[in-house]
Amino acid sequence: MGTTQLESVPEPKYWHLKTVLTEALDSEFSVGEILPNERDLAARYGVARATLRQALEQLELEGRLQRRRGVGTTVAPPRMGVAVGTSRHTWPGAGGDVWQPVDCVRSVPPASVAAALETGGEEVHIVRRSRTSHGRSVATELLYVPAASVPDLTAIDAPSGPSRARAVLRELHRLELDGQDRAVELGSAGADDARELDRLPGSPVLVLTTRFHAAGRTAALSVATYRADTCRLTFGDSPDVEIHDDPARRAS
After folding, report:
1. What dihedral angle (degrees, nearest 10) is formed by the CA atoms of 212, 113, 168, 132?
2. Comparing C-alpha atoms, which of 224, 220, 202, 201 is closest to residue 211?
3. Cα distance between the two ends of the chain
4. With bands split at pLDDT 50, 70 and 90, how would you rate the model's confidence at 232?
5. Start-end of H helices in the chain
6. Scanning 24, 62, 90, 171, which has its CA 20 to 30 A from the CA of 101?
């Protein structure tokens, strides 16, 4: 990082410093690398430490940096693509699925889910899965599956836990998938999601709801909660395009 004086910059110093730091992250640092300490960075850029902290906090909010207790501030991995406009329609747990089964219980779902599944007050299978990226948890999912969608599931084959979750997914694949609908919205993490995602309650999250259709009905419904600071929405079948710095936007 070269020395940059910011005294004559008309915009807020911390915001301009954030732009300078972003360029340095793209060109000089690699994922997981530890940044110099605040005193050295502040001296290098000729700013007060309070200004530096504002810029670092903004970069952390944007998912470019992560602060790790006992380690320091490190360069975060690229955001994970969350495909919402893909033309591919597959059941959860199909080949290439990166979600990991965690647990499965039978319980009455929330009223909104029960209405979508048309199950009334009946219990459904609730499969809980998680998704990680570069060693950190980035998403958690609740998959609601009516008993009618997996009629051959037996408690003997899969009594509980991840094995039962995998059994539910296996039986679900016996149905012919007609299609799926997806909707995404910005939300805030509740206590359970915050704990699983290692965030504070109320942190911004992306909530992706998917309805899976088979035999003329909704055969399953997924509610996936993603950390907003680690994920980005993609439209299409190529989620790997990653551009941190847009020259056109910077020049505007």
Report:
1. 80
2. 220
3. 24
4. confident
5. 13-28, 38-45, 49-61, 111-117, 161-172, 191-197, 247-251
6. 62
pLDDT at 231: 85
Tell me the C-alpha distance between 81 and 113, whole Å.
Answer: 26
Confidence of residue 244 (pLDDT cuts 50, 70, 90): very low
What letter represents residue 126's amino acid?
I
Which DSSP symbol is given to 104?
Answer: E
Q: Tell me, what's the pLDDT at 89?
A: 84
In this structure, are residues 51 and 13 in contact, taking their beta carbons and an 8 Å threshold? Answer: yes
Whole-Å CA distances, 71 to 26, 34, 59, 68, 200 = 21, 8, 17, 5, 20
What is the reported pTM? 0.74
Domains and CATH numbers, the chain: 13-76 (1.10.10.10), 80-234 (3.40.1410.10)
Q: How far apart (Å, rounded) are the C-alpha atoms in residues 98 and 67?
A: 26
Q: Which of 2, 69, 53, 63 is nearest to 31 (CA)?
A: 63
- Point out which residues pair with 83 in neighbouring strands: 234
Question: Rounded distance, CA 54 to CA 51, Å?
Answer: 5
Average pLDDT on 172-178 reads 94
Residue 227 CB burial class (10 angstroms; 0-12, 13-18, ≥19): buried
